[in-house]
Amino acid sequence: MIVNSLVSIDDIKAAAARVAGVARRTPVLPTVTPGFFLKCENFQPMGAFKQRGAYNMLAQLQPDVRARGVITYSSGNHGQAVAMAAQILHAPAVIVMPETAPAVKVEGARSYAAEVIFAGRTSSDRQRKAEELASARGLTIVPPFDHEWIIAGQGTVGLEILEQCPEVNTVFVPCGGGGLISGVSTAIKLTRPDVRVIGVEPAGAAKMSTSLNAGEPVTLEKTASIADGLLTLRPGTLTFAHVRTYVDHVMTVSDEQIAAAVKWLFRTARIVAEPSGAATTAAILAHGAPRGTTVAIVSGGNVAPEDFARYIA
Fold this sequence. Notes:
By secondary structure, this protein is of the alpha/beta class. About 45% of the residues lie in helices and about 15% in strands. α2 (about 50-60) crosses α4 (about 75-90), α8 packs parallel to α10 (about 235-245) and α11 packs across α12. The radius of gyration is 18 Å and the shape is globular.
């Protein structure tokens, strides 16, 4: 595995300046459990943290490149983020989504005037389709996680946590392909190395845990979880390098624990979280909060109403 270089703290600070005014500075809210706080990225305009990385990348493309259009492959939130960033920057956008993508996320991408194309059920299915279309149409691919500009944009969440909650001891971060946890862990460890960073992924999609145990990125044969935003089959090469360097531990949670966390967040904090966004809370509810001050990132709130009603019933 060859990685040229990891994202720097200066990259993340530059991204913070770039996305200011586009990405909302989301609040860190206390819960009913003393010392346990929530970083509410579900309060972003498009409902998830993803617009940080998407806008950071699109804003750095040359104007003529943006004008030709961009394309991405996404289970939902990254697709919406690219669509939103493209609309702001007046660029055409194509979003390749799985056939199983939640309607709320499909409608979200279309609401920003993006063209949505469906391809298969796995991340590899939609990546292949996106690469074909990019070649045929001359579009620029905006990867969902394995790119330094994406990672730097997501890392702005970590900078905000340190500024908003300077007493923090531990930060829990959901882990899909690894863009968010790569950026957040880099921002935190290069600023406050004493703060622990814990990754959380579904037991049915434990690609990062499996890869860390193997010492290299591993492709799972299949994934299954209600946390549709965390179902990537394989971590990125660059994101894996960041996680191995900066993350203290990666743990898994069951779908039952995730569903219980969605319900707990709504009942105790009136927060609407999608299953992927509730994974960090699930880990804390299941295993207890560490000593000191803990912040869990609620990464998104784009959940189908009928599913949400079932989770909180």
